[in-house]
Specification:
This protein is of the alpha/beta class and 238 residues long. It contains seven helices and twelve strands.
């Protein structure tokens, strides 16, 4: 048997993780969902929605226990009115704090505090290795559906997707020097002045299906070898 890689998985809410937890038979123990596979020792935490919980719980857990790799996952919105994108797996390769800055609503301008965003290099390589869509993600506390809000966001950031946790998780792992991968499933379109098209059931299902495949299914060894190469620069030899 290969030496197991210690991996921390992070989601905002239970429904995002439910199918993976049930299909993988993860056991709840001391605030974490846990299991061991042939290749991984998995701990899964639920942080709650938004950046505050994501930052606190991810920081606390990575300081409490040594992990080789961190995987954030969940659902996301897409800046499009194309309903066919809902249910698609994506792999964000850069995360912006898209509501941290100075806004002038009269001129529809926004000065971000961090215009460069946080690169998620592992996601870029994962996208190529597993042939799934990639692109930048905006992290916002409020969805971009208010009048003129979407125009301001798209003018200032080059993102394709939107979540409420991505940049916070990526930032924690950058500061903690942890190799970080983010996987999302598109749950809704984001359109100006309307709620957009949603299908949470499909996105939760597809997300769980994909996660199960890379941890327990036919792609588990491929994913193991991918992670093994990613963590070597951080000093872990498998």
């Amino acid at each position: 048997m290969s030496e197991r890689i210690n991996i921390l998985m992070s989601a905002a809410v239970y429904r995002e993780a439910e199918k993976f937890i049930n299909d993988g038979r993860l056991v709840f123990d001391n605030g974490l969902y846990c299991c061991k596979t042939d290749f991984f020792s998995i701990d899964l935490i639920l942080t709650g929605v938004g950046g505050a919980g994501a930052t606190y719980y991810l920081t606390r857990q990575t300081m409490k226990k040594e992990y080789d790799f961190v995987l954030g996952f969940g659902v996301c919105g897409v800046y499009s009115n194309d309903k066919l994108l809902v249910g698609q797996m994506v792999c964000p390769n850069k995360a912006f704090f898209a509501d941290l800055g100075f806004e002038n609503r009269k001129t529809a301008t926004f000065l971000p505090l961090d215009a460069n965003g946080i690169s998620i290099k592992v996601s870029e390589r994962f996208s190529t290795a597993f042939n799934i869509a990639t692109g930048a993600v905006n992290t916002r506390n409020f969805p971009s559906t208010k009048p003129n809000d979407l125009d301001v966001v798209l003018k200032n950031f080059t993102a394709k997707y939107e979540t409420m946790e991505s940049a916070y998780c990526a930032n924690v792992c950058r500061l903690q020097k942890k190799s970080y991968l983010e996987l999302r499933c598109v749950s809704n379109t984001i359109e100006q002045n309307c709620a957009g098209f949603w299908n949470l059931s499909v996105s939760f299902y597809n997300l769980g299906l994909f996660l199960y495949d890379i941890f327990f299914g036919k792609n588990s060894e491929t994913f193991y070898n991918f992670v093994k190469l990613e963590i070597e620069p951080f000093g872990k030899k498998i």
